[in-house]
Each structure stands twice: as structure tokens, then as C-alpha cells.
Amino acid sequence: MLSVEGIDLFYGDAQALAGVSLTIPEGAITAIVGANGAGKSSLIRTIAGIECPRAGRITYRGQPVQGRPSHEICNLGIGQVAEGRQIFPTLSVLENLEVGSHLPRARRRKAASLAEVFGLFPRLAERKSQAAGTLSGGEQQMLAIGRCLMGRPELIMFDEPSLGLSPALVEQMFRIIERLNRENGLTVILVEQNVAASLQLAERAYVLETGRIVMSGSGAELLNDDRIRAAYMGI
Ligand code: ATP
Predict the structure, then answer these.
(1) 137-141, 186-190, 220-224, 231-235 — which is least confidently predicted?
(2) How far apart are CA 116 and CA 122, in angstroms?
């Protein structure tokens, strides 16, 4: 569905991604794991068209997308739930969700999308008139996911969805991602520092270290790999 080939990304003189290549199969959950500063967010932001790579190719459903503006990439069906949620705190829950349906691909299906999002997150329906900034951390994360779903993505990229959530909410967040994949048929890229949980969920995974892919395999293979267990799980 998505192929990334030989991506180099620089911030000024500092190289954040070096020759990164990966393939994202349709219908699967693919995890990208790695330590703080490894380049995970940079990779997601590059696929989303927010950062412009110096070299490499990104192909979505056979068409090159690198260098295209982010709204065009969103409109192709690549959605992103950014790190830190980035909702609009003074807008209501409903207004935040409506922002997500402004994409041309999603406009006409706004009512159906809203019903789906409220079905998935009944808490958002209960609080639809409330200012988004007054929601709890977990509810804000649900809103960020809901807003992305309003854009009718086919591929959804999650950047650290568990960040700052309590253990019970982290568990709930992973179940939601699993459900979006299994029941709603969304292809998922999951970027996480929570390595064990994301490898359990993912069919395929890549390990990013200082801007390079150093290992890849099935989630189960990496979960049982001694180097991964020692480096990322403290086992
Ligand atoms: P984290 O989990 O901390 O977000 P990450 O794996 O997502 O880490 P990135 O945020 O992609 O890593 O950062 C990769 C490298 O690029 C880091 O060295 C970081 O300091 C640097 N970096 C990220 N964004 C910028 C920026 N806008 N300008 C300059 N350097 C940046």
C-alpha cells in the first residue's frame, strides 16, 4: 500500500533519517519502534508531507507522494494522529470533529462519519458541546483519533498514542487501534515507545535507531529477539 525507499531527511545540517526504507502492507498493523530521538516522528511527518526529504521515494498505491503538500496527502487517504494530540482546546468536541471532515474526500460523508465516531467513542457524543480543552487526557486522545477518522483515512498513522496516559487507558488505546484495524479495515502505522505492547499488536515491525532501520521482522519475531528485549524492554 505504501512504500518508502531510501529516505534521507535533514534538519539544517543534522541528519534525522538516513536511507530509511520500509513497506506497509494493506490491512496490517505495522509498528515502528525505537528510543527517544530515533527519528520515528520525523518518519511519520515525512510520509505525511510535513517534512520534505532530501532523497528517496514514497509511493502510495503506486503513485509517488514525496514532496506533495500535506493536505493533498491527507486527501489521498493517509491520516495522522500526531504526538501530543493537537486538538483545538477552545473549540467544542463537535467543532474539532468537523475540522476533520473538511477534506474533499470526506465532506459529503460527514454525517455518516460523525455517527461512526460517536459509535466508537460514546464519551465524545456525551461531551460534544464541551470545549475540547476541558476533556481528560484520554478523552482528548479519543478526540484526536475521531478527528482523523472524520477525514475517512484508509491508512492511519499513530504517533505515540499512549503517551501520557494511565496504564488502563494505554490498554484501552491499544484495543481501539486493534478494533480500527480488524473491524474497520484500516491499515495502521503505529509509532510507539511502548515497545512490548506495540510488537504484540503488530504483524510487522521495524526498529529505528538514530535515523536508520536496524532490524525488521514480524511482531512476534522481534518480541522474542534477545537484542530487542535487552535494549527496549529491560529483560
Ligand atoms: P521522540 O519519541 O522523542 O519524539 P522520535 O524517535 O520521534 O523521538 P524525532 O522526533 O523524529 O525522534 O527526532 C529525530 C531527531 O531529529 C532528534 O535528534 C531530534 O532532536 C531532531 N529533530 C526533530 N525535529 C526537529 C526539528 N524540527 N528541528 C531540528 N531537529 C529536529
Answers:
(1) 231-235
(2) 10
Residues 6+ apart with CB under 8 A from 24: 1, 2, 3, 4, 30, 155, 187, 189
Place of cell 471532515: 101
> Packing angle between helix 167-182 and helix 110-120, nearest 10 degrees?
140
CB 16 less than 6 A from any atom of ligand 1: yes
8, 17, 42, 214: which to mutate for ligand 1, most atoms within 8 A of CB?
A: 42
Q: How many CB atoms lie within 10 A of CB 56?
A: 17
Q: Are residues 169 and 118 in the same domain?
A: no
Enclosing domain of residue 140: 87-153
The number of the ligand 1 atom at minimal distance from the alpha carbon of 191 is 7
Mean pLDDT of 156-164: 90
> In this structure, is residue 82 part of a structural domain?
no
Residues forming beta bridges with residue 215, ordered by sequence position: 207
**Using an 8 Å Cβ cutoff, are 23 and 3 in contact?**
yes
Q: Do 221 and 123 reside in the same domain of the chain?
A: no
Closest by CA to 165, choosing from 186, 145, 180, is 145
Instruction: Look at the pTM and tell me if it is higher than 0.90.
Output: yes
**7 SS3 class:** strand
- On whether the CB atoms of residues 205 and 11 are closer than 8 A, the answer is no
